[in-house]
Backbone:
C-alpha cells in the first residue's frame, strides 16, 4: 500500500445475501422476475395466506448446493428449516423461513489475490452459507405530503443465499476483492446475477480494529455497517470506518467487551461519504427461532454432492491460471478478462487461438472490445464482430498492413456495417501505398520543409513529426511509421 | 325411516337407486338445521340456497348419467377452519370474521370433486384451541344430548351436527383430541388419521406438527367412506406422506382376526369417572367375546404427554398466529380511535414530564398491532400465544421447546414399543362425559387435563378413533378410543366396525330440545 503503515489491524467479516437465479420462488411457483408491477407476482402462499403451506423449490436448493460446493464448504447430510420471527408489514407471515443451527453448508473458503499485489493471496473463511426466503419491500411516504407506507410483496419468498464470511479480511481492498471474486464465482456458476441495483446482492459488514498498545492488544467494539450500495461503497465505508474507529479509540478508549463496547450498527451515507450511527434498541432482538413444522428436513447424499462438484465447470481462479499459461498474458490481463465473465473469456480464447498472438488479442479485447461494450452498454453476445473477423483484422495489423489507429477505424466500420476487415478497408478507402509513391511523397515534403530538415540534422529527430502530419493530409493511407523512417533515412543520406 | 336418520351409506344407496334425490336429502338436513340449530348452535354459517343448488346440479349429473363422485349428493358439514373459496372461514375467531379465502383446502377440493354437498360451516373453539367449543368467538355449541352441556371441542360443531342429524358426515380437525373428544361426548364416530395421511393445505394452522383433518360420522363404515375421499398425498403439503390410500370401505366389514388389544393401566387411574371406566371395560369385553386377547402395555412417558403438548402446541401456535396483526390478515383496529388514543397518552405523559414512559410509548405501527390483536383474539388464544412466545424466547428455548421435543420422541418410542406387542390400544376418550357449559371456563388447567387420553396420539403422530360405547346415568354418551400404529387407519375402522356390529350405542339418537 502507498500509505504509511497503520498502527492497527483492520478486521472485517462480510455477510452477503444473493438472490438465487431460479425462475420461481423458494416455496411456491411464483415468478422471481424483477420489476413487475407491485403485488402482481404473488399467490396465496407467498403472501402468507392462512392455511397455505410451503414446499421447497428443489432448483433453489440445487443452486445453493452448487455455490456451497464451489466455496469449498462442508455439506452436512442433514439440514432443516427454521422460522425467524419478527413483526414487520413486509413480512406477511410474521416469520421468515430461514436456517438457524443446522445450515445447509459451513466451513468453506474463497481464495482471493490482488493482481496489483497490494496484499498477499489468502483464503477467506466461509463460516456458513444458508438458504432463506426474502421479505417484501416497504416504501414509505413516497407520495409528497402523504404520510403513508406501501408494501410490495413481489419479492416475498424469493430465494436468498446468505454467505457469512469469517472475520478474515484485513483491509478495505481485501473486502472489495472478496466481494468481486464472490460475485464472479456466483456469476460463473449461474447461481446469481448478483445485480446490486436490483437488490440481488446485498452486503453488510462487521468491522473492528486490533490495536497494539504497548504490551496490550486491544480490540475496538464491533460495528455492523449497512446500506452499502456498491462494492466501491463497501471499500470506502471500510476505509472510513477504520479511520473513525481509530480516532474514537484514541479519544475515548472504548474496547470490545468493556463499558460502552457493545456492537453498534452504522449506515453508510453516500452523500457525506461517512458512516452514521443507526438507532438500535438496547436489548438485542429475540427472533425466537424454532424448526419450521411445515417443512421436512433436507437430506443430501455424498453422491449428490459429488455430482454437483463434477458439474461446476472451470471456475475463475483456475481459468486465470490457464489463460496465463496458454496465452502468455500477465496475471493482470487474465484478471481483467476473467472478471468480464465466461462469455468474454470464450471470445478472447477463440480470438487468441485464431490470430496466434494472445498478448495482441488481449490488448484488442481489453481496449477496443471492452470499450465498445461499455459505450454501447451491451454484453459480448451482442458484439457485432465475431472472433474470426476480429482475428483477420488483428492479422492485418500484425503484418503491418494497417497501423493500430487505422485498424481502429476499420473496426469501427466493421461494427457499423457488419462487413469483414478487407471489405471495411475498401469501404473506407484505405489502400496500401507502394514504396516508390511513398518515397516520392517524402522527397516532396523534405523539399518543401527545409527548416525541419535542418532541425533534424541538428539532432532534433522529433521535429520530423510535423512531416508525418503533412504526409497524412496529402494521402491518408500512408503508414506514418514508414513515412518517418523514410524521411529520416533521406535526411541522413543527404547529410553525408 | 326419515332421510336424516339414515347413515351416509344408506343415503348413498338410496341416491344411487333413485329412491330419493340429493335435493330431497339436502332439504331434509337443512330443515333439521332450521328446526334445531337454534338450540344446538352447531353451525356458524349455512347457505341453504347454495347447498340446494349444488344438490340439484348433482341430481342432474346423475340423471344424465355423467360420471359422479363417491359422495354424490351427500351433505357434509365442514369445520370452519378449512379454507373454502369465497366462503367465510372464520376459525371461530373475531380476527378472521371477514376472511373469505380465494382458494380451497385440498380436503375441500376433494369433497367437491367427490360431489359432496357442503351444507354448512361448523362451529369450533377459536383457532381450534379448546375442548368445549366455548372458546368460539361467536357462540358456544350445545351438546345435543343435553343443551346445558358442552359438545366437546374443538370440533364441537362438527360432532354436534352429526349427533343432531343435521348432517350425515362432517370434517373436523384434531390437534390434541379435537375430533375424538367431541365425537366421544356427542356419541358419534370420529377418526383422527395418522399425521401426514390427509393434506393440511388450506387447514388454517393451529399447531402444524400436530394438526390433522379427519372424518366424523355416525358409523365406522361412513367414516371409512369420508376418509377414503380426503386421504392421500398432496404435493402442496410437504408433510403429507406419499403412500397409497387403502380402500377403507372395502375392508371395513372384515373383522380383525387374532386381535391383540393393549390396555394401558395408567389410562384407568386417578381422575377417570367410574361410569366411563365401566363402559370402556365393558366395551373391551365385547372385543374379548369376539376372540380378541388383552394385554397390558405401558406408555411410561404418557404422564408427561399433556405437559409436552402444552409446550409444543402453543409454541407453534404463537408462530402460526403471528400473521393476524391487522396489516395483511386479521381485523384491523379502528385507526382513528387508535391515533386519538396515542395522542391523548402522549399529551398526558408530556404534561406529567414522564420522559421514560414517553420514550416507551408505542409508535403507530406497534399500537396498531397491539390493539388489533388485543381486540381480535379471545382469552384462550391469547393465553396460548403468550405461553408459546415465552417458551420460545431466548434463554427458555432449551428448557421448554427443546425438552418437550425430546419427550415427544420418548412418547413416540413408547407407542412403537407397545405396538410391537399389540394391534390396537383401547381406552377412554375423555375422563368424564360432557360437563356443563361454564363449568371449567375459569380453570384452564382442568380443561387441559381433559386431553389426557388423546394428546399422546397427536404427539406420536398415530391415528385414533372414538366410538360410542355407553351412556352415563345422566343419559350422556361415553366414548371408547382405539389407537393404532401409523397408517393403520384400516385397522382402526375394522376394529370400530367389529364393535358396532355387536353394539347399538352408535344408533342412539338424542331427543332434541326445541327452543
Residues:
Amino acid at each position: 500500500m502507498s500509505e504509511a503503515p497503520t498502527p492497527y489491524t483492520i478486521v472485517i467479516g462480510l455477510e452477503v445475501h444473493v438472490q438465487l437465479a431460479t425462475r420461481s420462488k423458494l416455496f411456491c411457483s411464483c415468478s422471481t422476475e424483477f420489476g413487475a408491477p407491485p403485488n402482481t407476482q404473488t399467490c396465496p402462499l407467498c403472501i402468507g395466506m392462512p392455511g397455505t403451506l410451503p414446499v421447497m423449490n428443489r432448483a433453489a436448493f440445487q443452486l445453493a448446493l452448487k455455490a456451497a460446493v464451489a466455496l469449498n464448504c462442508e455439506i452436512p447430510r442433514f439440514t432443516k428449516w427454521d422460522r425467524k420471527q419478527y413483526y414487520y408489514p413486509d413480512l406477511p407471515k410474521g416469520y421468515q423461513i430461514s436456517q438457524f443451527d443446522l445450515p445447509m453448508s459451513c466451513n468453506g473458503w474463497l481464495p482471493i489475490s490482488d493482481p496489483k499485489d497490494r496484499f498477499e493471496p489468502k483464503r477467506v473463511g466461509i463460516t456458513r452459507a444458508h438458504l432463506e426466503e426474502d421479505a417484501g419491500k416497504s416504501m414509505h411516504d413516497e407520495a409528497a405530503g402523504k404520510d403513508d407506507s406501501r408494501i410490495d410483496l413481489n419479492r416475498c419468498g424469493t430465494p436468498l443465499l446468505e454467505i457469512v464470511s469469517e472475520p478474515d479480511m484485513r483491509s478495505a481492498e481485501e473486502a472489495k476483492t472478496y466481494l468481486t471474486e464472490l460475485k464472479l464465482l456466483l456469476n460463473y456458476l449461474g447461481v446469481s446475477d448478483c445485480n446490486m441495483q436490483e437488490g440481488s446482492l446485498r452486503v453488510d459488514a462487521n468491522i473492528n480494529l486490533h490495536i497494539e498498545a504497548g504490551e496490550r492488544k486491544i480490540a475496538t467494539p464491533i460495528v455492523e455497517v449497512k446500506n452499502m450500495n456498491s462494492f466501491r461503497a463497501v471499500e470506502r465505508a471500510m476505509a472510513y470506518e477504520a479511520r473513525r474507529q481509530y480516532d474514537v479509540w484514541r479519544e475515548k478508549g472504548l474496547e470490545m467487551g468493556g463499558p460502552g463496547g457493545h456492537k453498534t450498527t452504522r449506515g453508510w451515507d453516500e452523500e457525506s461519504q461517512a458512516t452514521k450511527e443507526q438507532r438500535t434498541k438496547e436489548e438485542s432482538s429475540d427472533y425466537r427461532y424454532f424448526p419450521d413444522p411445515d417443512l421436512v428436513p433436507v437430506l443430501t447424499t455424498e453422491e449428490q454432492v459429488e455430482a454437483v462438484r463434477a458439474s461446476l465447470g472451470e471456475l475463475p481462479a483456475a481459468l486465470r491460471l490457464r489463460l496465463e499459461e496458454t496465452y502468455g498474458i500477465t496475471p493482470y490481463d487474465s484478471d481483467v478478462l476473467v472478471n468480464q465473465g465466461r462469455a468474454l473469456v470464450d471470445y478472447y480464447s477463440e480470438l487468441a487461438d485464431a490470430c496466434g498472438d494472445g498478448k495482441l488479442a488481449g490488448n484488442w479485447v481489453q481496449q477496443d472490445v471492452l470499450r465498445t461494450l461499455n459505450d454501447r452498454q451491451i454484453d459480448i453476445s451482442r458484439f457485432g464482430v465475431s472472433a474470426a473477423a476480429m482475428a483477420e483484422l488483428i492479422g492485418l495489423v500484425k503484418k503491418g498492413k494497417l497501423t493500430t489507429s487505422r485498424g481502429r477505424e476499420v473496426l469501427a466500420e466493421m461494427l457499423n456495417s457488419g462487413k469483414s476487415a478487407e471489405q471495411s478497408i475498401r469501404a473506407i478507402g484505405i489502400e496500401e501505398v507502394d514504396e516508390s509513391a511513398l518515397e516520392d511523397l517524402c522527397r516532396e515534403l523534405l523539399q518543401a520543409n527545409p527548416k525541419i530538415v535542418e532541425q533534424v540534422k541538428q539532432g532534433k529527430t522529433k521535429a520530423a513529426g510535423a512531416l508525418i502530419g503533412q504526409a497524412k493530409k496529402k494521402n491518408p493511407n500512408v503508414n506514418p511509421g514508414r513515412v518517418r523512417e523514410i524521411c529520416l533515412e533521406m535526411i541522413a543520406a543527404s547529410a553525408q | 325411516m326419515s332421510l336424516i336418520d339414515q347413515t351416509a351409506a344408506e343415503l348413498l344407496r338410496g341416491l344411487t337407486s333413485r329412491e330419493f334425490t340429493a335435493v330431497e336429502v339436502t332439504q331434509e338436513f337443512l330443515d333439521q338445521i332450521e328446526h334445531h340449530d337454534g338450540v344446538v348452535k352447531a353451525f356458524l354459517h349455512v347457505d341453504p340456497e347454495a347447498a340446494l343448488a349444488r344438490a340439484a346440479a348433482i341430481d342432474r349429473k346423475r340423471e344424465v348419467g355423467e360420471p359422479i363422485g363417491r359422495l354424490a349428493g351427500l351433505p357434509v358439514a365442514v369445520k370452519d377452519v378449512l379454507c373454502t373459496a369465497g366462503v367465510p372461514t372464520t376459525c371461530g375467531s373475531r380476527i378472521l370474521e371477514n376472511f373469505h379465502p380465494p382458494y380451497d383446502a385440498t380436503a375441500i377440493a376433494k369433497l367437491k370433486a367427490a360431489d359432496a354437498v357442503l351444507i354448512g360451516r361448523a362451529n369450533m373453539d377459536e383457532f381450534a384451541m379448546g375442548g368445549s367449543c366455548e372458546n368460539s368467538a361467536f357462540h358456544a355449541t350445545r351438546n345435543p344430548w343435553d343443551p346445558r352441556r358442552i359438545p366437546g371441542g374443538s370440533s364441537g360443531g362438527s360432532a354436534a351436527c352429526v349427533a343432531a342429524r343435521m348432517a350425515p358426515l362432517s370434517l373436523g380437525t384434531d390437534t390434541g383430541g379435537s375430533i375424538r373428544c367431541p365425537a366421544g361426548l356427542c356419541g358419534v364416530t370420529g377418526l383422527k388419521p395418522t399425521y401426514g395421511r390427509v393434506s393440511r393445505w388450506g387447514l388454517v394452522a393451529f399447531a402444524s406438527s400436530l394438526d390433522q383433518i379427519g372424518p366424523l360420522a355416525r358409523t365406522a363404515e361412513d367414516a371409512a367412506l369420508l376418509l377414503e375421499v380426503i386421504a392421500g398425498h398432496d404435493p402442496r403439503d410437504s408433510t403429507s406422506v406419499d403412500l397409497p390410500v387403502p380402500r377403507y370401505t372395502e375392508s371395513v366389514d372384515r373383522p380383525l382376526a387374532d386381535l391383540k388389544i393393549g390396555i394401558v393401566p395408567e389410562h384407568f387411574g386417578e381422575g377417570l369417572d367410574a361410569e366411563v371406566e365401566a363402559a370402556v371395560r365393558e366395551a373391551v369385553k365385547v372385543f374379548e367375546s369376539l376372540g380378541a386377547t388383552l394385554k397390558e402395555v405401558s406408555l411410561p412417558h404418557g404422564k408427561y404427554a399433556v405437559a409436552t403438548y402444552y409446550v409444543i402446541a402453543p409454541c407453534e401456535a404463537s408462530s402460526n398466529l403471528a400473521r393476524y396483526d391487522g396489516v395483511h390478515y386479521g381485523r384491523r383496529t379502528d385507526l382513528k380511535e387508535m391515533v386519538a388514543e396515542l395522542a391523548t397518552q402522549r399529551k398526558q405523559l408530556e404534561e406529567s414530564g414522564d420522559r421514560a414512559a414517553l420514550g416507551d410509548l408505542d409508535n403507530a405501527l406497534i399500537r396498531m398491532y397491539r390493539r388489533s390483536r388485543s381486540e381480535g383474539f379471545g382469552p384462550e388464544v391469547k393465553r396460548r400465544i403468550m405461553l408459546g412466545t415465552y417458551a420460545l424466547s431466548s434463554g427458555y428455548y432449551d428448557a421448554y421447546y427443546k425438552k418437550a421435543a425430546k419427550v415427544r420422541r420418548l412418547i413416540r418410542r413408547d407407542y412403537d414399543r407397545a405396538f410391537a406387542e399389540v394391534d390396537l390400544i383401547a381406552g377412554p376418550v375423555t375422563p368424564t362425559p360432557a360437563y356443563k357449559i361454564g363449568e371449567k371456563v375459569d380453570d384452564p388447567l382442568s380443561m387441559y387435563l381433559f386431553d389426557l387420553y388423546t394428546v399422546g396420539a397427536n404427539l406420536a403422530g398415530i391415528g385414533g378413533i372414538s366410538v360410542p360405547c355407553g351412556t352415563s346415568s345422566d343419559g350422556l354418551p361415553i366414548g371408547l378410543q382405539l389407537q393404532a400404529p401409523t397408517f393403520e387407519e384400516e385397522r382402526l375402522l375394522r376394529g370400530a366396525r367389529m364393535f358396532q356390529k355387536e353394539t347399538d350405542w352408535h344408533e342412539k339418537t338424542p331427543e332434541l330440545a326445541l327452543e
The two ends of chain B are 25 Å apart (CA to CA).
